[in-house]
Amino acid sequence: YVGRLFVKAGGKPVEILTRLNEMAGFPPNEEIELYEVSMKFACAIVE
Q1: Which of 46, 45, 42, 2 minimizes the C-alpha distance to 24?
Q2: Local structure of 46: helix, strand or coil
Q3: Global pTM?
Q4: What is the rounded distance in angstroms from the CA atom of residue 37 to the CA atom of residue 34?
Q5: Short-list 8, 29, 25, CA closest to 17
Q6: Closest by alpha carbon to 2, among 24, 27, 18, 32?
Q7: Residue 41 has pLDDT above 70, yes or no
Q8: What is the Cα–Cα distance from 19 to 24, expressed in whole angstroms?
């Protein structure tokens, strides 16, 4: 885990991968595996 990276929907994959490699300390052209983590939180309002 190297951190969070919020990207725009129109972001170019090459730019995103370059930034992720930089965050991890890898060379810009290093092949990496990406995983998406989706977290949903339940919210209850108690009156």
Answers
A1: 2
A2: coil
A3: 0.57
A4: 10
A5: 29
A6: 24
A7: yes
A8: 9
Average pLDDT over residues 7-26: 84
Alpha helices in the chain (DSSP H): 13-24
Which residue type is seen at 8?
Answer: K
Please give the Cα distance from 20 to 44 (Å, whole number): 36
Q: Which domain holds residue 37?
A: 1-47
Residue 2 has pLDDT above 90, yes or no: no
Identify the pLDDT of residue 12: 81
Higher pLDDT: 4 or 21? It is: 21
Q: How many domains does the chain have?
A: 1
Question: CB-side exposure of 22: number of CA atoms within 13 Å?
Answer: 7
